[in-house]
Specification:
The protein is of the alpha/beta class and 364 residues long. The chain folds into three domains: 2-58 and 183-246, Rossmann fold, CATH 3.40.50.11750; 67-172 and 256-300, Rossmann fold (3-Layer(aba) Sandwich); 312-359, no CATH class. 38% of the residues lie in helices and 18% in strands. The chain has a five-stranded parallel beta sheet with strand order 2-1-7-8-9. A hairpin with a 3-residue loop joins strand 10 and strand 11 (279-288). It is globular, with a radius of gyration of 21 Å. It binds iron/sulfur cluster (SF4). The site of iron/sulfur cluster has 14 residues, from helix 16.
């Protein structure tokens, strides 16, 4: 607790803001992307955008797992609802994401569908042990949560659980980072890199950023972490000298987590993946290896994936690519609110639209 207080201390925040202000070059703007949804929420929650000088622009990126899950992937979950003796297990964030018919898993649960919210893969193992029904776990997320799904499959195999399978929508960071770097519309100067992803991947995945003359700063999730990293990015842009800096050493060593990566490697292989609003990105998703196919729900239940079609009117894709802020979507705060979300960026706790709605986003 004391540690968190230190990273929220007003006096340190003020010093960092002053240092940032003093470091800015005349006629220079600084475009900084926070890739991950957890950063988006922290930045909005602590009002960091409104504290920063106007020459610093913070742009939200495609790092909210629920938001980037394509509509086709979401709709495929609903195809399981009428299966007899089957329980769908999800993390809470997925419950309110609307399918193409406008109904969510929460709505279907209200109508009697067997859907449970779990907090960890250990909950799922416990559930599978307690019933003869089939359990399908819908797995989404990036490198931070993927090892847990790999563990779930390995542990199910070890325990001989034949009633458990996984609908896998996990995605990987490096390919989408490459896409952002190639995007001529964005022109990012530096990145706040996700501290939690780094605990698994290590810092090497950010090398393409510095090769493209962008700052890459691994960042924690408290105001002092974020401001410290913004200062680092400003200094690198000013000196035109770019390197990967790890400002989150208290949690992420910067090295790869070999144990977690070897579990991922054992159970999954790379495949193409559909990203909401972005489309198919080659090699940016995962598939369950054949040796573990009995745990692959898509094969076990012969699930087909409707081709992704984003909901007409929802501009989540443009929000996720950093092209617009949520307030530039006509639906924002009117048709689309957290109570009545039209798109996934308004549903998820880590969604940019939800963060802007709850905490405000930019300087008006
Ligand atoms: S405000 Fe709603 S409709 Fe607009 S982009 Fe965000 S989630 Fe989609």
């Amino acid at each position: 607790m004391e540690l968190i207080e230190n990273f929220r201390r007003k006096s340190i925040v003020k010093i960092l803001l002053r240092k940032i202000e003093e470091s800015l070059l005349k006629n220079q703007t600084y475009k900084i992307m926070e890739i991950c949804g957890t950063h988006t929420v922290s930045i909005s929650r602590f009002g960091i955008r409104s504290l920063l000088p106007k020459d610093i622009q913070l742009i939200s990126g495609p790092g909210c797992p629920v938001c980037v899950t394509s509509q086709g992937e979401i709709d495929s979950i609903f195809s399981l609802i009428n299966q007899k003796d089957l329980i769908i297990a999800v993390y809470g964030d997925l419950m309110r994401v609307p399918g193409s018919d406008g109904k969510s898993l929460l709505d279907y649960r209200g109508m009697g569908a067997d859907i449970v919210v779990v907090n960890s893969v250990l909950d799922i193992i416990k559930l599978a042990k307690s019933t003869d029904k089939n359990i399908v776990f819908v797995s989404i997320g990036f490198e931070t949560t993927t090892p847990q799904t790999a563990y779930l499959i390995l542990e199910s195999q070890r325990l001989g659980l034949s009633n458990l399978s996984v609908l896998l929508f996990n995605k990987t960071m490096p390919e989408v980072i490459s896409l952002i770097l190639k995007d001529k519309n964005l022109k990012i100067d530096g990145f706040l890199c996700p501290g939690h992803v780094t605990t698994v991947t290590g810092v090497d995945i950010y090398t393409p950023m510095i090769k493209n003359n962008k700052a890459a700063v691994v960042t924690g999730f408290e105001p002092v972490d974020i401001l410290q990293s913004i200062l680092t990015i400003v200094e690198q842009v000013n000196s035109n000298n770019f390197s990967i800096v790890n400002n989150y050493k208290r949690v992420a060593s910067g090295e790869k987590n070999e144990k977690a990566l070897s579990m991922i490697e054992k159970v999954f292989c790379l495949s193409d993946a559909d990203w909401r609003g972005i489309g198919t990105i080659k090699g940016s998703g995962l598939r369950i290896r054949e040796e573990f196919e009995e745990y692959d729900a898509s094969k076990k239940f012969d699930i087909t994936f409707p081709k992704y079609t984003d909901k007409y009117g929802c501009r989540c894709g443009d929000v996720l690519k950093g092209y617009i802020t949520p307030k530039e979507c006509k639906m924002f705060g009117d048709v689309c609110t957290p109570e009545n979300p039209f798109g996934p960026c308004m549903v998820s706790n880590e969604g940019t639209c939800a963060a802007y709605y709850q905490f405000g986003g930019e300087i008006e």
